[in-house]
Amino acid sequence: MATVADLLRTKGKKLFSISAKASVRDALVLMAEKDIGALPITDGDQLVGIFSERDFARILAKPAAFSLDTPLDQVMTRKVFTVSPSTNTEECMRLMTEKHIRHLPVMDDKKMVGLVSVGDVVKAVINTQRHFIKQLEDYIGGSW
Fold it and tell me: d(Cα 92, Cα 43) in Å, to the nearest integer?
């Protein structure tokens, strides 16, 4: 089974984050520029939250007045579920499904080293299954 470290090697370790004091507008601009669906929120070098497209949709659905200049620390998701590089893809999928989340920051010794999405995990699971199917086909076909 593939691990988060394997996923990060495949997808690269490009990591974008934004300050908790930045505005919703700043986050949306960065997300659009980088074509990403979520941003880890930091205060210095500490992970303090996450802001996603889903968070923005929930803000817009509220009847209260809203400004794009609202600081992220007022609207971000504060309870962030994380994984380590040694976490396997099956555990990531379980956590994402159970918690209804699409992004998991990757923490290594209290330092954020990456972010994996549900798309990254599904791609890895599909690749693992393809490899397994190929092995079974080779075995059945006598290629071993």
Answer: 25
Q: 129 Cβ partners below 8 Å, 6+ apart?
A: none
In terms of residue numbers, what domain contains 48?
4-140
Burial class, 92, CB count within 10 angstroms (exposed 0-12 / middle 13-18 / buried 19+): buried
Q: How many domains does the chain have?
A: 1
| Neighbour tally for 31: CB within 10 Å | 19
Q: What is the mean pLDDT of the chain?
A: 90
pTM of the shown model: 0.85
Q: What's the pLDDT tens digit per position in 28-45?
A: 999 999 999 999 999 988
CB neighbour class for 81 (10 Å; exposed up to 12, middle 13-18, buried from 19): middle
The CATH number of the domain holding residue 93 is 3.10.580.10
